[in-house]
């Protein structure tokens, strides 16, 4: 695949309309990075405050809104759990999240989400790309779009990290036409990227020599035939070298023991701590997933298990980002592909339900300690402030200062960042 | 106790069914055989008169779902346990019972309760991994038993009263000395536990415990073959332990009962073990003898069943169902 640069510059990929909205107003100098950002002691508070980042908590399978952000105790759909007060008077959440309840003053709950898609795959596509899945086009996920918007051009390490409960490493295919540079690099079970250790049979000196030789050949080739693909090719090599040199960036064991204790001695606790580390090191986009919430059977038992882990890890994460002043510059998103049915089935389960569920956001332009939208008494429909996947996609981008109405230039064709027929949730954007 | 002459599980037939307003979770028959009490997916206890089905709703005792029930031996008091962590005492035969007392028994759900044979003690197990023994008369805490590493799914007193058994999510059964509160020994019921790494959950657990009246067997029930916990793809399983040796003498399987869970086990006077199971869209009473792995009879119930209790007459069985009904099945030929 050859991708034509529209303007033959390093600013390629920018459409004729301004790519950065409020970010541009703040000055693109605010988007800094590179290896300097990986030496934590050198990261100025200014940078921490202004470098925008997104962290996505992806609750695989469909977190129940009734057992989390929109409880309906005492109703036919409410289930056995009670609503508990939070740090914000008047806002209650499920009793399975007592620690998170104490961080509510940092959070914004969008309780009127209707994405109208109850299939796992299609639901995920909608939530992650802001568009319905069609055979005609493959769209980049929010992480890739955000990485392209927020990642400095000279950023050497992966700008889009995906932390998964299992699996291996390597690049994902979530960037679509944006190209592999913005696709997520997977850290399976929080381990560093694969193949980032120099084999014992190759010395540092011989490796440096062969890299120099590669660069020499590349430069000769690029002087006449430079394309986006050749750039991506060279970029991959240089990034791999940086990964090898800075492998300890991914080493969560370097975080303090007391934080491991606080976040919980389980995979999600470790992954959340790694996400904090990556954000502090300047990674623009981090996504971590918690598996699994597809609880057609014994929904309540399984939510006790899963939310026990989530509550501890997530509350510490929010608290730490707030304490470190990072919520000003970091957007936290928590979503699933959908919610779960208000109706409780014969096996104490809840099934797929996309018509009235909740998404959590915090940080950047999000209001603190707020809710938006409302469902009816037993949670079967949205009665106020209904939003969908497209509204949310616009909102995520706007929250970190990206003009979601702008377009990418893909081979000379303008491709809108977000569904142009939709709009952000203006009411919650500060 | 000798078996009633009419007892014949193969002649089991439904004799009554009574409806509440919400799906039922639990049921117990009082020791005098006058009422069946039900816990349900709301915050009330329902009482049905066994002779005519008259329903009385017992309110204000709990904040959320009622999952466990027990009686003092003389039957004067019913005790309910709920997902609010409370246990609440009621006068069994009052016209409209009101809470006599409520005790904060566990942090998290109360999942199981049992009364000791002389009716002076009530044991509870909960989501705080604790087992507690209470004075059935005044609600005071008598023993606090710690050591489980998972939610307590079942508690049952030994028929001679000196021991208490407790089973947890992880497939561990502990035997406790009631008088001292000391752990006596552990039974390995791991086949009832599944860890599914892909879904990231522990599943199954010891959902039912029952010691045979002669003290020879300990039955532990739950599920196995859990290939997909989130879809409930599993089958009921009962492990029959030799009380003396702790060896699994029998694995009672239930071929053909898809998506089933053995929710409760009781022993009939003739040595038959009865289990109640849910299924795809039905309930099931299953009957086993200790000398055979497979059930010798099964009786289908109209809706998913979640709990069961045996009438003092040894012939009637009450079951709690998802379709909001309590049903009475008679284990004898139709009159």
Write a brief structural summary:
The complex is a heterodimer of chains A (430) and B (335). Chain A is an alpha/beta fold and 430 residues long. Chain A has helices at 22-26, 45-50, 98-101, 120-129, 142-150, 204-225, 228-245, 257-263, 267-280, 299-323, 389-399, and strands at residues 53-60, 83-85, 92-94, 107-113, 160-164, 185-188, 285-291, 330-335, 339-340, 352-353, 357-362, 370-372, 374-375, 382-384, 407-410, 413-416.
Describe this structure as you would to a colleague:
Chain A is of the alpha/beta class. Helix content of chain A is 30%, strand content 16%. In chain A, the strands form five sheets. Chain A has an eight-stranded mixed beta sheet, sandwiched between helices. In chain A, helix 4 runs parallel beside helix 11 (389-399), helix 8 (257-263) packs across helix 9 (267-280) and helix 9 runs parallel beside helix 10 (299-323). The radius of gyration of chain A is 22 Å and the shape is globular. By secondary structure, chain B is mainly beta. Chain B has one domain (15-330): YVTN repeat-like/Quinoprotein amine dehydrogenase (Methylamine Dehydrogenase, Chain H, 7 Propeller), CATH 2.130.10.10. Chain B has strands at 13-19, 24-29, 35-40, 45-49, 55-58, 66-71, 77-82, 86-91, 99-104, 110-115, 121-126, 131-135, 141-145, 152-157, 163-168, 172-177, 183-188, 193-196, 201-204, 208-211, 217-228, 233-242, 248-253, 262-267, 273-278, 283-288, 297-301, 305-310, 316-321, 325-330. In chain B, the strands form eight sheets. A four-stranded antiparallel beta sheet of chain B has the order 1-30-29-28, with no helix packed on it. Chain B starts with 12 loop residues before the first strand and ends in a 5-residue tail after the last strand. Classes of the chains: A alpha/beta (430), B mainly beta (335). The A-B interface holds A 61, 73-74, 76, 79-82, 165-166, 267, 290-292, 294-298, 301-302, 304-306, 344, 346-347, 349 and B 22-23, 41-43, 63-65, 67, 83-84, 108-109, 127, 151, 197-203, 229-232, 259, 278, 281, 303-304, 322.
């Amino acid at each position: 695949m050859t991708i034509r640069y529209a303007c033959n510059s390093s600013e390629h990929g920018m459409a004729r309309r301004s790519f950065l909205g409020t970010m541009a107003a703040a000055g693109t100098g605010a988007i800094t990075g590179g290896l300097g950002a990986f030496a934590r002691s050198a990261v100025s508070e200014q940078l921490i405050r202004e470098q925008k980042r997104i962290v996505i908590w992806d609750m695989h399978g469909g977190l129940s809104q009734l057992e989390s952000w929109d409880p309906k105790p005492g109703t036919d759909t409410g289930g056995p759990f009670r609503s508990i007060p939070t740090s914000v008077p008047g806002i209650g959440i499920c009793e399975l999240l007592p620690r998170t309840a104490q961080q509510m003053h940092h959070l914004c709950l969008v309780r009127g989400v209707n994405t109208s898609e109850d299939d796992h795959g299609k639901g995920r596509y909608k939530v992650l790309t802001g568009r319905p899945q069609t055979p005609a086009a493959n769209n980049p996920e929010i992480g890739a779009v955000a990485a392209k918007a927020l990642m400095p051009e000279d950023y050497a390490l992966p700008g889009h990290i995906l932390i998964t409960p299992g699996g291996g490493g390597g690049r994902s295919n979530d960037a679509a036409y944006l190209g592999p540079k913005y696709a997520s690099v997977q850290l399976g079970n929080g381990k560093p990227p694969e193949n980032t250790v120099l084999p014992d049979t190759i010395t540092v000196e011989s490796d440096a020599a062969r890299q120099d030789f590669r660069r020499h050949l590349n430069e000769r080739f690029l002087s006449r035939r430079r394309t986006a693909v050749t750039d991506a090719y060279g970029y991959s090599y240089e990034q791999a070298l940086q990964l090898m040199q800075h492998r300890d960036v991914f080493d969560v064991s370097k975080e303090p023991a007391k934080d491991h204790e606080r976040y919980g001695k389980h995979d999600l606790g470790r992954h959340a701590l790694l996400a904090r580390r990556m954000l502090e090191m300047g990674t623009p986009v981090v996504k971590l997933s918690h598996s699994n919430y597809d609880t057609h059977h014994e929904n309540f038992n399984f939510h006790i298990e899963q939310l026990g882990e989530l509550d501890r890890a997530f509350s510490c994460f929010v608290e730490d980002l707030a304490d470190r002043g990072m919520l000003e510059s970091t957007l936290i998103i928590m979503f699933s592909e959908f919610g779960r049915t208000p109706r409780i089935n014969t096996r104490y389960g809840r099934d797929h339900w996309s018509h009235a569920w909740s998404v959590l956001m915090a940080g950047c332009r999000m209001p603190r300690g707020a809710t938006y939208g409302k469902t009816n008494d037993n949670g079967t429909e949205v009665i106020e402030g209904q939003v969908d996947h497209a509204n949310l996609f616009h909102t995520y981008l706007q929250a970190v200062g990206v003009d979601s109405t702008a377009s990418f230039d893909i081979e000379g064709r303008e491709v809108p960042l977000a569904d142009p027929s939709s709009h952000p949730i203006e009411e919650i954007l500060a | 106790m000798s078996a009633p002459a009419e007892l014949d599980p193969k002649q089991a037939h439904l004799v009554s069914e009574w409806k509440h307003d919400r799906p039922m979770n639990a049921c117990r028959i009082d020791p005098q055989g006058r009422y069946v009490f039900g816990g349900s997916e709301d915050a009330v206890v329902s009482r049905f008169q066994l002779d005519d089905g008259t329903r009385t709703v017992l309110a204000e005792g709990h904040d959320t779902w009622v999952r466990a029930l027990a009686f003092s031996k003389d039957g004067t008091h019913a005790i309910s346990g709920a997902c609010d962590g409370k246990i609440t005492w009621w006068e069994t035969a009052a016209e409209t019972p009101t809470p006599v007392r409520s005790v904060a028994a566990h942090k998290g759900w109360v999942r199981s309760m049992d009364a000791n044979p002389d009716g002076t003690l009530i044991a509870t197990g909960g989501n705080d991994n604790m087992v507690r023994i209470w004075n059935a008369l005044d609600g005071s805490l008598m023993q606090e038993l710690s050591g489980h590493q998972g939610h307590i799914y079942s508690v049952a007193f030994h028929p001679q009263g000196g021991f208490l058994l407790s089973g947890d999510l992880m497939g561990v059964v502990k035997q406790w000395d009631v008088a001292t509160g000391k752990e006596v020994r552990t039974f390995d019921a791991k086949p009832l536990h599944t860890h599914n790494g892909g879904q990231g959950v522990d599943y199954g657990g010891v959902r039912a415990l029952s010691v045979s009246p002669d003290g020879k067997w300990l039955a532990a029930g739950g599920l196995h073959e859990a290939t997909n916990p989130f879809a409930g793809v599993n089958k009921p399983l009962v492990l029959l332990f030799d009380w003396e040796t702790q060896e699994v003498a029998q694995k009672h399987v239930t071929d053909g009962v898809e998506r089933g869970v053995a929710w409760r086990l009781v022993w009939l006077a003739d040595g038959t073990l009865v289990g109640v199971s849910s299924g795809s869209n039905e309930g099931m009473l299953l009957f086993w003898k200790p000398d055979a792995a497979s059930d010798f009879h099964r009786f289908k119930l109209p809706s998913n069943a979640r709990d069961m209790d045996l009438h003092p007459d040894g012939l009637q069985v009450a079951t709690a169902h998802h379709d909001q009904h309590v049903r009475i099945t008679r284990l004898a030929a139709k009159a």
